[in-house]
Known about the structure:
Strand content: 5-15%
Shape: elongated
Number of strands: 9
Order of helices and strands: EEEEEHHHHEHHHHEHHEEHHH
Strand order of the largest sheet: 3-4-6
Number of helices: 13
Radius of gyration: 33 Å
Amino acid sequence: METIYNKSRFPITTWPGVPVRIPKVWLRPVTLEAGEFLVSWRGEAKEVQLPDELYLRELSDLDLQSPKEILHFAEKYGCLGGGGQVGPDWEDILGKPLGNEQLAKINEDVQQLRLHFKKSHLEKMPRKKQSLIGSVAHVKEFTLRATLLRDLVRLWRLYKEDISFDSLRDNWENPVMPFSGIEAGVEDYAKNDISKALAQGIHAVLALAIYLEQPLSAFHVRLEIPAIIETEHFNQYEDILKRPVANLYQVLCLQLLNHINEQAVYKQCTNETCKRLFVRQRGLAQHGQYKTTGVLYCSNFCAKAQAQRTLRRRQAKARRLHREGMNPRAIAKQLGAELETVKGWIGG
């Protein structure tokens, strides 16, 4: 019997919950050197807007067995990955990339290829030409990111039930996130009163969360998964399944940033005992709608408190004027109040 859910799917959301504008990228001249190294050159660069759905269309169609096709892609859109002449940079894939056994092995192989390329090719270039090199990437560095991204799309399609687990297995490409690990994990969890369908869905989302976290950190966005799993065999994924917990200082800084972003106007509460700064009034908003203009008080409480204070003063003044001999009609005129209201205040 399934102990958590009777479906393989569960809700995931993104932060901040709205589409994020896709920035332009800087495109530099790229050449294919020694038949397997993509070299980006310093100098004239242009800022370009990438076509919509590039990851889903052109990257999906790209023949990764052809260095010339990869070069053509890089010339139009830029390189996937690349580091300096010293070594590759994997930081856009994982926060601690060399902690991944598969990636560490690939890194070792690429380092050897780079060393050979440096000695047989780069060091033979004129110094002036060497100084113009911006970045260097072996085609393996490109294909590793391309296949990883294509497999992340497949995981998302599995979660949405667009494809089957068998189809995912048959089309898997990337060695950094080996399919065998996902398959073994699903089998292990299926032994703990959890259906294979649920285990497959959970693994798909876990992998998405793990491998999207680092590249998306550049945009301060993330994939969020509700903390829905309480069983012991999922404890190893607790940090990924639960939403990141920000401390109070971080949240307050985010509030300030949001006000800066919207160019919010600070107002001062006109409740004479408050006087605090505010942007939106608390206490009366419904469904997240707030008035930001024509508001005098920081909260409904302050508005009511000031209204009561003003009323008491008007009542006290009416009684004082009455004691001094002014008739109710004159008091009403001076205070701008109804005659019957004034009579109630003065008790007659």
